Amino acid sequence: MKGQNKLFIAIVIALILGVGIGGFVHIQYPESAESFSKNIKLLGTVFIRLVQMIIAPLVFTTLVVGIAKMSDIKMIGRVGTKAMLWFISASLTSLFIGLMLVNWLEPGHVTKLPIQDAASAEELLKSSKGFSLEDFVKHVIPKSIFEAFATNEVLQIVVFSIMFGIALANLGEQYAQPVIKLFDIIAHAILKMVGYIMWFAPLGVLGAIAAVVATNGFEIFKVYAIYLRDFFFALGILWLVLLLVGYLILGNRLFELMRRIKEPLLIAFSTTSSEAVFPKLVEELERFGCNSRVVSFILPLGYSFNLDGSMMYMTFASIFIAQIYGIEMTVGQQITMLLVLMLTSKGIAGVPRASLVIIVATCSMFGIPPEGIALILPIDHFCDMGRSMTNVLGNALATSAVSKWEGQLENHGGKM
């Protein structure tokens, strides 16, 4: 626990320092803010790239070992069914909460936002125009596992790993055991690397926060105060729902889980990357007492199918843009939009700024000017902090819940 506390304190200090340094540069040296931002952001880039370096091999080895060790195909099907039921229920709940609150709070009606130049959204608009069922299938099914590894396409790696793990489980112990043992050793070695890489987290946090504050200053908080206030209020409601369900399933152990994942939550919030905490989350959930096979199976799936924060943001932002343009949508249209978002958002976790891409595609479908995405681009970084943190919480709860339902949640995990 001592080491964990030291790292947690270091991250908090880095967060405060980042805001202070960024604010100082923005106020005292505004002409240097852009170059300063570009340089200090490299600290965040180093941390993120170090984590990305180990994501593909970790997902592959842990998932293959988890499935192969299950050996019972019925168990794989049972665990997978429970996981998907959680993912679908949580996704629909998140979308519905976003829909209800954006209609109640109406941030687009009460906020006078400066109209942004649509050119800032041009790249995003281009990337969303090609979105189709064909692209979705291509994104899910790999044509080469090596290409999937090279581009960190988590869902493609998951698909290959599940098939490989099932094949290994049915190969017979004589042939399968040496391969499982090798992958198990590799997975543990990579998890050991996690400990080393996490000590770069404070530097990554400092760099990411200082860069955005130096460029945008504190004014950005004022300009978009109402939108941010309403969005984070909606996130708070989603957290209450998730934690209530978590308490009903885990009981008092929920508080132990929250203590375990406080560090991953803070890193996800600071770096706006739930991917950055994947290895650490694997480690903490196993220490909490979750079955390693369940963790290896559920967590990679969750990163593709269980993005609760992103889900809620998609309905919130889509209706917000409609409100800004004065477009009234019927209840039927909004429910249809909710279902469209539910389907189109699955499996695009590997796409950069995936939530925004889906919002643009959905707006086009429902006659809302997609250029409206330019309105929220300047504050997307801050919204991304909240949704990344919520994605991590949702996946930690899903993994713990399925472990409990399987009767494989140990009463005492590793040392705190």
UniProtKB/TrEMBL annotation:
Show the GO cellular component annotation of the record.
Answer: plasma membrane
What residues form the membrane-spanning segments?
7-27, 47-71, 83-105, 154-172, 193-214, 226-250, 319-344, 356-379
Q: Which residues form the signal peptide?
A: none
Query: Mostly located where?
Result: membrane
One of the entry's Gene Ontology molecular-function terms is: symporter activity
* InterPro entries (alphabetical): Na-dicarboxylate_symporter, Na:dicarbo_symporter_sf
Q: Where in the cell is it found?
A: Cell membrane
Taxonomically, the superkingdom here is Bacteria
Q: What topology in the membrane does the UniProt record assign? A: Multi-pass membrane protein
Going by the UniProt record, its keywords in alphabetical order are: Cell membrane, Membrane, Symport, Transmembrane, Transmembrane helix, Transport
Q: Which GO terms describe its biological process?
A: dicarboxylic acid transport
What protein is this chain from? Na+/H+ dicarboxylate symporter
Taxonomic source organism: Chryseobacterium populi
